[in-house]
Amino acid sequence: MEKKDIASCTLEELTEEMVSLGEKAFRAKQIYQWLHVKLAESFEEMTNLPAALRKKLDADYEIRKVEMVQEQVSKKDGTRKYLFCLKDGNMVESVLMKYRHGNSVCISSQAGCRMGCRFCASTLDGLERNLTASEMLGQVYRIQRMTRERVHNIVVMGTGEPLDNYENFVRFIRMVSDENGLHISQRNLTASTCGIVPGILRLAEEGLQITLALSLHGSTQEKRKKLMPVANKYPLEEVLDACHTYFQKTGRRITFEYSLVRGVNDGDEDARELSALLGHQNCHLNLIPVNPIRERNFEKPDKKSALEFKNKLEKNGINVTIRREMGADIDGACGQLRRKTMQGV
Asked: pLDDT tens across 283-340, in order?
């Protein structure tokens, strides 16, 4: 019989588990703190638990480990990219970025991805499976253990589409922000979606305070369809309506992500269309010079062209920034390191 994934249990669920084992309810909080505050990786570390309980836990439960396989460190800015191996041999990527305001970690929500965005390496081999809440938490915990530094901000923008793994993703958000765990403010949590409308609308009703980042990448429905197959199912107008609903329900301003691809979506017409599209939205636009991948011939514009594109948008009243490129000298784009390793390159 497969052991239960104990680190995916909420405190309430863990309390029920302990009571069902005939243990006192307070044992749940002790175990929860060992898992999510002290970041224990074995039941033997839980020294304030009776030996009999530790033995019982070891028999029925498991703490799924997220093991580091490879680490790349940028010589330019110190960004660290990690390749982690999961229990079943699947691999996922995480990135640690250090800023003056604190450490930010980008984590994966799935092993692989089925969304098919044309500029992304994560999707080239399709979706393997969803990650559990503990496997998402485990990426953050492993980075904290290795660096011995606290993570202040988390972005779910690595491999995978979080709203395609909705239940586990929301469980992760609630657990990582739980006052009994790492207690990271929900306002310091950002999740990126390619635009799954039912998921956005459902998320709006969860009572969460996370930032939603929409991968836009095209200034019209037709242009978006060429880059993002998901646009065939969820038209841009519906996606923007769902984003507006999210803002109304949560009060959280939407961030739009726009990968700048030279000669594809960085022209004068694109700037005009983008200005018209977002002019009435309470939002922030992130311009991201595309990170080239070997399997596609997309190239990023030069710095002068990117700045000119930004200036055109600003003149039209759009709140816009060009995202600072981090880890440009390593396999920084989502899915690059994982795919190279899987292919033995």
From this structure: 999 999 987 766 567 888 999 999 999 999 999 999 999 987 766 666 655 555 655 5
β-pair type (189-193, 110-112): unpaired
Cross-strand pairs, 256:
214, 285
For residue 93, give Cα distances in angstroms to 153, 192, 279, 329.
17, 15, 35, 16
State residue 296's pLDDT score: 65
**What stretches of the chain show up as alpha helix (H) in DSSP?**
11-20, 26-36, 51-60, 133-147, 166-176, 197-204, 221-227, 236-250, 268-278, 303-315, 336-343
Hey, what long-range contacts does 96-100 have (CB within 8 A, 24 or more apart)? 96/143, 96/147, 97/326, 97/327
Strands (E), 29-90: 61-62, 67-73, 80-85
What is the longest distance spanned by two Cα atoms in the chain? 70
Query: Is pLDDT above 70 for 341?
Result: no
Residue 334 annotated as catalytic:
yes
Query: pLDDT at position 345, please?
Result: 45
Catalytic residue among 9, 106, 120, 334: 334
Q: How far is CA 288 from the centre of its chain?
A: 16
H helical segments located in 211-267:
221-227, 236-250
Round to whole Å and give the CA distance between 244 and 235: 15
Measured between alpha carbons, how far is 199 from 45 in angstroms, rounded to an integer?
Answer: 39
If phi > 0 it is left, if psi is from -120 to 50 it is alpha, else beta; for residue 78 that is left
Note whether 25 and 18 are within 8 A (CB). Answer: yes
CA angle, corner 308, sides to 305 and 309, nearest 5? Answer: 90
**∠ at Cα 155 (14, 172), nearest 5°?**
15
**Annotated catalytic residue 106:** no
Active-site residue, selected from the candidate residues 17, 23, 41, 93: 93
- State residue 315's pLDDT score: 95
- The pLDDT tens digits of the residues spanning 155-205 come to 999 999 999 999 999 999 999 999 999 999 999 999 999 999 999 999 999
Taking residues 273-277, report their average pLDDT: 96
- Whether 322 and 309 have beta carbons less than 8 Å apart is answered as no
Q: What is the mean pLDDT of residues 133-146?
A: 98
